[in-house]
Amino acid sequence: MNRRKKSITDMEALKAFLRSQKLKATPQRLMVHEAMMELGHASADMVADYISGNCNTKITIASVYNVLSMMADLKIYSRRMSGNNKMYFDVNSFKHIHIYDTTSNSYKDLIDDELLEMVEQRLQGRQPKGYKLESIDIQLICRPARKTRKKKAAL
């Protein structure tokens, strides 16, 4: 079962979606979205740095964070809390598995619909006592293998 929801990658689609939510497609919102399409997983700091380096404009980190949070509330992005207590945002808001690299504090997506379906089926009817299961979020916490680190050091 493929649950992937298409990300809003087209700026015209984003503008139309924002209008449908009675929101304006401000230059800041469009710049943040453009940065997120390039970065994939990013913190507000990373997005602000991208914008200042690639769009020749300045935007405060607070403004970026507000836009990212609004987009996450609209389900355009999803939120991820990293091991270094920094909020990251993900352009893929569909169900998928994350690989979190504790060395670089970065995320990568692992798309495995079969594994997600197995976990969901296993938990069906096995609600934790006193709780209602809202969603399943699988995150693999990893560090680079020694071979990978040595290769990166040699480059």
Describe this structure in words.
The chain is an alpha+beta fold. It has one domain: Winged helix-like DNA-binding domain superfamily/Winged helix DNA-binding domain (Arc Repressor Mutant, subunit A), CATH 1.10.10. The chain has helices at residues 11-20, 27-39, 44-54, 61-73, 113-123, 146-154; strands spanning 41-42, 78-81, 87-90, 97-101, 106-110, 139-142. A three-stranded antiparallel β-sheet has the order 1-3-2. It has a three-stranded mixed β-sheet with strand order 5-4-6, with no helix packed on it. The longest helix is centred in the N-terminal third of the chain and has 13 residues, at 27-39. 17% of the residues are buried.
Cα(first) to Cα(last) distance is 40 Å
CATH topology: Arc Repressor Mutant, subunit A
Shape: globular
Secondary structural class: alpha+beta
CATH architecture: Orthogonal Bundle
Number of domains: 1
In what order do the strands lie side by side in the largest sheet? 1-3-2
CATH superfamily: Winged helix-like DNA-binding domain superfamily/Winged helix DNA-binding domain
Quaternary structure: single chain
Structure annotation, total helices: 6
Helix % is 40-55%
CATH class: Mainly Alpha
Give the radius of gyration: 18 Å
Poorly predicted segments = none
- Number of extended strands: 6
* Mean pLDDT figure: 87
Described by strand count, sense and barrel closure, the largest sheet is: 3 strands, antiparallel
Return the string of H and E elements.
HHEHHEEEEHEH
Strand content: 15-25%
